[in-house]
Specification:
With 334 residues, this protein is an alpha/beta fold. The chain has nine helices and 15 strands. The protein has helices at residues 11-22, 37-40, 71-84, 164-175, 198-206, 252-258, 302-305, 308-319, 325-333, and strands at 2-7, 27-30, 89-90, 95-101, 104-109, 113-121, 142-143, 156-160, 179-183, 211-213, 217-222, 225-230, 233-238, 241-244, 285-287. The strands form three sheets. Strands 1, 2, 3, 4, 5, 6 and 15 form a seven-stranded mixed beta sheet that branches. Strands 7-14-8-9-10 form a five-stranded parallel beta sheet, covered by helices on one side. The mean pLDDT is 95.
Amino acid sequence: MLDVLIIGAGPVGLACALETQRRGLRTAVVEKGALVNSIIGYPTNMEFFSTPELLEIGGYPFPTSHYKPLREDALDYYQRVARSENLELRLFEKVEKLEGEQGNFTVTTDKNQVLTRNVIVATGFYDLPNPLYVPGEDLPHVSHYYKEPYQHMAQHVVVIGAKNSSAKAALQLTRAGAKVTLIVRGPEVSNSVKYWIRPDLVNRIAEGRITAHFNTCVTAIRPEAVEVLTPDGPLTIPAHFVYALTGYHPDEALLGRLGVEPDPADEARAPLFDPTTHETTRPGLFVAGTVCGGRATSRWFIENGRHHAQLIAQHLVNTHEEPTLSERKKAALQ
């Protein structure tokens, strides 16, 4: 039986594994995809907004020649840390449910059953995009994830959204020769866009290199066009490709199956947990990282979420008791 099973092999999940394993707790990490799967899904050569020291885990220095690391730097760093600590990783294994109680949990995956005394949920939010709820959203030329611009030269590309991801995508696509139209639900480019990105986008719109429609919503997506409703009425925009960069949210269905209760007083449906230990209302079940914010995905990042690992690990050590011989026999029979 494990002392701790961590669900999610992102930076915060790895930080939790480092802290619990170093304190002598038998630890494993289960992940439905690859190691740091969300970072793999980020755009090619994406630049983090944080400096290297704010992304470090386990005391390992983050070497990079860039002031702000690139996606590829982070992939290399977190993989090196996992190998250096010889973490037990169960990759491409999807968790389905959690049964039992603290000290004797059974985690069922699509491949196995895992016995563990405690569970830490560090599943993030990047895997589930916020849908538009419009016809045609599932067409093959529509994506909620932007990777790189080079295939779109001389193509009509519609980008939906007004925050950092859509701003950077629109700028990259434009400079790669795409004909970009930006659809923004609000009256302007969001003020939350980073201060060095927003003026660039605003100026490209002002000079006409990017066409922008504000106070506009998408009503339907066709094979080669996007139907929108502008303040001046309906409009059809040509579109060979569509990037609906409208944000992401946690897997609430999985959290429910694990027994994580949402805070009824929080509009973002953040989990109920003790902020000093990160234990949820289900004893022995903890939450860490960005999943702690629910649908308010800007509350937690790698740089502040990584510290959850130390709080949880110290609490587990303080309350850890070795199982009795009868408990070990019972677990073995199961």
